User: Which sequence fits this backbone?
């Protein structure tokens, strides 16, 4: 808050301090009188910035009041404004707390609290999701807060408030309220309100739009990602906006950071709010200068009659225990650990009493690791039950077997998370807006005077909800026209972001326009990424009761998915490690679908990722070599040996002295593929192979690369054919002309060897002598016959 006020002109500062779970976590302590009810950092921000706020006449609208917006407003008046004699008026928004209303409803009618996804017939809810509705005494509700809109905020500003403290309002509501007040919008100016809704969505998550949680972060220096500045939106009278930041603060705003944040926590092309529905199907995101991005094309419609209601209840107890294994036969080790614990829990009569008992293998050991940590993974044992003693039996069953453990067992000595602790269940409901009692209360500057209360009613016009758009690829392209394929990470073409919405995960993927001037990669992405492809990529995490919806946003070249179900009951009650769904998109981007080789799909080169492995340099050749697999059985038998050899080379690549290159007979394409696949499996890093290459004989003594690697390949040299274009799908002739042959022995700024005659050159020749040393000469004769 202080930096936003300090480093440039702003009219309004908004602040989103609430994740869904904040209110539930603090509810019991607030009721017991041991918690203030507001968010401490919201108070700290006001305390630090209050003088500048008064001096610059900046309006402030924050939801940091949480459970007690009235208390934070009065504290601000009493401790910050009155002692300084500042000319500021404080107000607070009231009406989101529906705890007593929900408790009363549950005692009368369980069906009076419908689930957010209940109307979607394709969605299957987690088995325990609605259990608390029938057992309110055993699983009591601790908090129930409705997501309010902008109407009370706008009215407070109209009544002269300078600082408005809110509780649970929708994340974007402060921005919508500020823009509606500033521009004098009416309640039915839906296009303008929708534009402000999206503006609020773009800046609601702090630095998520200035470099944080950004899938393209590796294109930037680490120094650019430290101490990021917060974003700013300049909302115009027509609802369009420009996203920017203070020039003096770190970070960056570009089309890709804005697209990533747009796609975060969406439910489809219609974005819902208590005040308006925003249609973002045809939304445009365009650069408007350095750290300035224009957002336009959003249209609006009347809001739904309902709003979201976040309900938290006492669901029981949970624990988690982490067990580590190193190296060999890890899968068998963890299987033994699970079998031991299940057997003991059965003996104790506890096994069938758990609501959740999950054994999750996290990570996989690196092949031929260069340190023990690279070989270490862990088993996450996660349990939930309503009975504390049932959960306590987990650590007891584990302790009983501690001297019967698998080979090399170890774990942290801090076992606090293994002890039973209460957890909250989450239930996202919907509530009619006309049942809310929403108001804004403006404090008097005289302590003895009463505050002024202004009641705001529900929206004057509402509109029913339609089923979300769900369809396959529009105008799909024939992928066969692009020719041969290779396997490579989806992240080489697509950026993206994912997040949670209750039990569901959303995932948006897009092709940066700057890397796809012809639109070929966008055609490839939207054609490839069907619902069936997404299900396939989810892999063994997929469950039959999950459901996928898919839509497209052509203007920003994005495909968007909602996967219903992976987070269970969601938020505080999810059993999965990524309980907020933030890692899902990065998992999908790491998977390797088939890429068409003639498209030149290599979006980011090694300059961005200095430690990128050898496999990046060899993935293109594999497609050609796949055509000749005459020696398949021998090929697969020897591949593991070659991978081991390459790792052995890598272990001392920075200190070893390599012998001069040796001539080898020409290899068949099958042997070429063998060598490439071995490099695929190796963990030798680019820095290591580059250093190793510098130890070799001068380039002039090596065999020059040839135009077609499939036709004439030697063990020491390979080249990517010109049909495989470089990073942006075209050759940069001017740069090629400037590069000399010395580039072959040193890594240029883009992290690859370049020369005038070739698009890309890689030289695995320095591993050749080790191939000869590791394998018997008879092998070469056998394969080359």
Assistant:
């Amino acid at each position: 808050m202080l930096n936003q006020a300090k480093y440039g002109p702003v009219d309004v500062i908004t602040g989103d301090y609430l994740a869904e779970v904040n209110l539930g976590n603090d509810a019991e302590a607030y009721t017991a009188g041991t918690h203030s009810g507001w968010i401490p950092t919201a108070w700290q921000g006001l305390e630090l910035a209050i003088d500048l706020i008064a001096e610059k006449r900046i309006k402030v609208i924050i939801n940091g009041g949480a459970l007690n917006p009235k208390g934070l407003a009065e504290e601000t008046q009493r401790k910050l404004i009155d002692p300084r004699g500042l000319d500021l008026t404080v107000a607070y928004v009231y009406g989101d707390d529906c705890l007593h209303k929900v408790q009363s409803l549950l005692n009368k009618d369980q069906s009076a609290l419908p689930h957010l996804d209940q109307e979607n017939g394709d969605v299957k809810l987690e088995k325990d999701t609605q259990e608390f509705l029938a057992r309110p005494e055993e699983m009591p509700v601790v908090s129930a807060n409705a997501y309010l809109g902008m109407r009370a905020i706008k009215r407070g500003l109209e009544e002269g408030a300078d600082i408005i403290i809110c509780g649970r309002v929708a994340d974007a509501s402060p921005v919508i309220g500020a823009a509606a007040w500033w521009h004098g919008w009416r309640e039915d100016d839906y296009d303008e309100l929708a534009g402000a809704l999206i503006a609020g969505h773009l800046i609601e998550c702090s630095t998520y739009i200035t470099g944080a949680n950004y899938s393209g972060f590796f294109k930037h220096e680490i120094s650019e990602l430290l101490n990021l500045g917060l974003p700013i939106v300049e909302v115009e009278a027509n609802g369009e906006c420009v996203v920017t930041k203070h020039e003096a603060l770190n970070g960056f705003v570009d089309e890709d950071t804005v697209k990533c944040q747009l796609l975060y926590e969406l439910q489809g092309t219609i974005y819902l709010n208590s005040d308006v529905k925003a249609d973002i199907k045809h939304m445009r995101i365009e650069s408007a200068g350095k750290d300035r991005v224009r957002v336009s094309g959003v249209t609006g419609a009347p809001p739904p009659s309902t709003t979201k209601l976040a309900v938290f209840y006492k669901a029981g107890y949970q624990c988690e225990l982490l067990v580590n294994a190193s190296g060999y036969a890890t899968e068998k080790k963890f299987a033994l650990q699970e079998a031991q614990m299940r057997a003991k829990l059965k003996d104790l009569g506890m096994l069938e009493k758990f609501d959740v008992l999950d054994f999750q293998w996290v990570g996989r050991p690196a092949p031929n690791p260069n340190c023990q940590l690279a070989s270490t993974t862990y088993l996450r044992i996660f349990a939930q039950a309503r009975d504390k003693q049932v959960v306590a039996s987990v650590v007891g069953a584990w302790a009983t077997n501690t001297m019967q453990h698998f080979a090399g067992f170890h774990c942290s000595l801090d076992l606090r998370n293994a002890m039973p602790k209460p957890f909250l269940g989450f239930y996202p409901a919907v509530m009619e807006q006309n049942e809310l009692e929403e108001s804004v209360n403006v404090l008097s500057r005289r302590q003895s005077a009463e505050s002024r209360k202004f009641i705001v009613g529900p929206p004057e016009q509402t509109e029913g909800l339609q089923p979300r758009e769900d369809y396959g690829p529009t105008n799909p392209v024939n992928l066969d026209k692009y020719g041969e394929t290779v396997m490579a990470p989806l992240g080489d073409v697509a950026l993206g972001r994912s997040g949670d919405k209750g039990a569901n995960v959303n995932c948006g993927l897009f092709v940066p326009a700057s890397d796809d001037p012809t639109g070929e990669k966008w055609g490839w992405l939207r054609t490839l990424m069907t619902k069936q492809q997404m299900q396939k990529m989810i892999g063994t995490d997929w469950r039959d009761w999950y459901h996928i919806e898919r839509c497209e946003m052509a203007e920003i070249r994005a495909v968007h998915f909602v996967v219903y179900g992976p987070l269970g009951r969601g938020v505080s009650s999810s059993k999965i490690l990524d309980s907020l769904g933030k890692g899902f998109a990065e998992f999908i981007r790491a998977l390797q679908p088939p890429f068409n080789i003639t498209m030149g799909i290599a979006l980011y080169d090694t300059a961005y990722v200095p430690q990128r492995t050898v496999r990046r340099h060899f993935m293109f050749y594999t497609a050609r070599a796949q055509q000749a697999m005459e020696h398949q059985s021998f090929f697969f038998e020897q591949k593991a040996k070659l991978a081991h050899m390459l790792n052995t080379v890598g272990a001392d690549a920075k200190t070893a002295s390599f012998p001069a290159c040796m001539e080898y007979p020409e290899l068949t394409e099958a042997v070429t593929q063998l060598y490439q696949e071995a490099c695929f499996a190796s963990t030798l890093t680019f820095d290591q192979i580059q250093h190793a290459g510098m130890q070799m004989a001068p380039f002039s003594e090596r065999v020059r690369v040839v135009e077609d690697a499939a036709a004439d390949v030697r063990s020491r040299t390979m080249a990517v054919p010109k049909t495989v274009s470089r990073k942006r799908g075209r050759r940069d002739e001017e740069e090629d002309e400037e590069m000399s042959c010395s580039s072959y022995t040193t890594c240029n700024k883009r992290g690859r060897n370049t020369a005038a005659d070739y698009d890309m050159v890689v030289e695995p020749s320095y591993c050749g002598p080790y191939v000869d040393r590791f394998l018997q000469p008879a092998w070469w004769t056998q394969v080359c016959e």
In short: The chain has 22 helices and 27 strands. Residues 479-599 form one domain.
